[in-house]
Structures are given as structure tokens and as C-alpha cells.
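Q&A log
Question type: sequence-to-structure
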Amino acid sequence: MQPDERDLDGWTPMGAVWRTVVEGVTGSMAYLADKHWNVVACNDEFRALIPDGRPPSNIMRWMLLDDRARHDVLVNWTEDWARGACPALRRAVTNHPADPALIDLASDVRSDPLAGPIYLATASSHPLHPDGVVRQVNHPTKGPGWVTASAASPLPAIDAMFVMMQYRPGDIRPHQPPPLSTHVR
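Response status: OK
Response body:
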């Protein structure tokens, strides 16, 4: 099922608003995922990141288990992408231990010969919020470059995630912005 065909889990009327926001983003890749990392909306720039142009039904499954993602698109997959995603998946399972979709996803990741050992090796790692993370990609149409992520949780579904990724071409890593201070003056 394509993201455009998915229900936004009863987010109506907010679901339509968020779909409009995501699909209206230009100049950056953008997607909206639910608490299971199912892609419920995305824009054309995000579709262009996927080699066949069809967005994955589940972004976590794609990042950790899809061979095209691991070998063709997500550069330095083991150290950057997988070591960042596995702790997030583990935290979701810990926070929702009876959720069958999350349990199945974690089981598939643990069973995978590439992702499984990373999932186990990152057992004590703390998940990093993807906001501000800079990762290298090999964009199918734009070539080698970097994406800088901006992420937020929509208020109607706090476990959901809105992610935008700004692409910059080239081999030189762009500056990763420092985390925002929580100190209010």
C-alpha cells in the first residue's frame, strides 16, 4: 500500500492537514511516519530518494532490512544509519512491549544477518533523536551527498514523526548544527 492510500489512524481532520503539509514541502525530502514507522505521507523529493521511486511502507524496515537501502543509498550504513536506528527501535519496543507490529519488526531485525548483530551490539546505546543528524547518502538521481534531518512529533499523534531531510551534494560533510539549549533566558 502506498503512503497516499494509508489511513492516518483517525487523525481526521488533522490527518488531512499533515498530509497537505508533508506533500507541500519543496526543496527538502519529507515524510510522516506513525509510531510503527509506517510512512503515511511523503513528498516527491522523498520518493526520489528511493531507487524505484516507490516509498517504503515502513521507513525503519527499509533502513535496516532493505538491501538497496543498505548497499546503494545509505552510505556508511553500519556505523551511521543502523547504529542510529537500532536503539530507536529497541526503545519503541521497550515503551510498547505488547505492540505486535513493533515486536514483529524487532524480531525481523534481530533475525537479519546484517542488522541483527548491530541490534544486539547497540543494546546499551541510547537512541538519538534524528533532529539535526547529518548522514551520507548516495541519492539515486542527484548522486553522492549528505542529508541533514529535521524532525518533530505532530501533536495529534505524539508517537508519530514528521521528518524533513535537506540534501547537499558532495563529499564534504556539512556542519552538524549543535543541539538547541534547553536553558531559557
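Response note: Residues 1-9 have pLDDT under 50 and may be disordered.
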